[in-house]
Amino acid sequence: MTDLIARLKEWFDNKARPFLEQHATEKVVELDQDLDRLLRADLRASEELAICFLGAAGVGKSTLINALVAGEENVLPSGGIGPLTALAMQVRYSEKARFEAEYQTLQNLWRLVFGLEQTFKRQEAAERAASIEDTDVAPEFEEVAAEYEVDLQLVLNCIN
To answer: CA-to-CA distance for 160 and 123, rounded, in angstroms?
Structure first.
């Protein structure tokens, strides 16, 4: 219980409640319920609250967390190119500034590398498809596709 809430409860129990029991008994039950809700809320305020930030790389998740948690300082790497915090990160309050890292197994590292490679390959393929669409070669593909009654977009999707 925080100091302010403890003082409020002490004042209510020792001063306000005895007065109200004599002069406004109908208010005592309602104020007891209000005090109980306040005490429960005070207990919940000290509980750890998990919040998850999800989104594509480079959209500002780490920057937002830094702004919320540390103001001008950085507690997470941010503002770079590519996924800087691709694995789960936990940020917690501590009276003393400290940093703790949990190293991943080699298998998890290779999974991350594989995931990054696949993302890179998909981006590269999408760029190739976009460059094919922007060149004069595309009409030739369209003629061949029409000749063989093939959906050109379907073919391009399969290539990529």
So the answer is: 9
Helix ranges (DSSP H) in the chain = 3-11, 17-23, 25-45, 61-70, 106-134, 137-147, 152-159
pLDDT in tens, 89-141: 777 777 887 777 777 677 777 776 777 777 778 888 888 777 765 555 455 55
CB 38 within 8 A of CB 50: no
pTM score, two decimals?
A: 0.39
> Are 160 and 129 spatial neighbours (Cβ–Cβ below 8 Å)?
yes
Q: What's the confidence (pLDDT) of residue 160?
A: 47
Q: Are 84 and 77 in contact (CB under 8 A)?
A: yes
Query: With contact defined as beta carbons under 8 Å apart, do 125 and 158 qualify?
Result: no
